[in-house]
Design brief:
CATH architecture: Beta Barrel
Radius of gyration: 16 Å
Helix content: under 10%
Number of domains: 1
Number of strands: 10
Number of helices: 0
CATH topology: Lipocalin
Structural class: mainly beta
Distance between the termini: 14 Å
Strand content: over 45%
CATH class: Mainly Beta
Largest sheet: 10 strands, antiparallel, barrel
Length: 177
Amino acid sequence: MSPGPVVDLHPNLLPLAFLLGTWRGEGVGGYAGMDGFRYGQEIVFSSTGRPALSYESRTWWLGEPRDGRSEGSPLAIEVGFWRVQPPDGDGPPAVEVMLAHPFGISEIYVGDVAGTRVDLRSNVVIRTATAREVNRSERLYGLVEDGDLAYAIDMEAEGKPLQSHLSARLQRVPSGA
């Protein structure tokens, strides 16, 4: 997904301005009953001037071939939108994130943004009849040393309790690269 033309950021989105751009790096994943794995990832946050950031993430396999996957094989894609609601009183701004996955799951998260940290909790998870059972997730995104974007995703699925699933550290890709 191309970030498109440069536009003014809607004022509601100023708390998320630190996310704008293309981020690329590596992560690790695993879950109860699943062997750990490494993956590459690119995330693009872009603005069209409307009060929602567009979001697209794609991942690919890194490492030795396994389970029919080889280096560079596509893994997952998620697309969606991030919105900010002004704070009530002295609290932090509220963040709403809507995501769709091609394997039959859509999620809505709610959370807070404080500085360059965003904490999200599942609000709604819906799935098709053929999608795997995912009950809830929690996500944490934030800038870390050197201005990298790090995140962690915990998931409750397939009758297992909430536990670590994915984490990555991504570097901002210079515009035009």
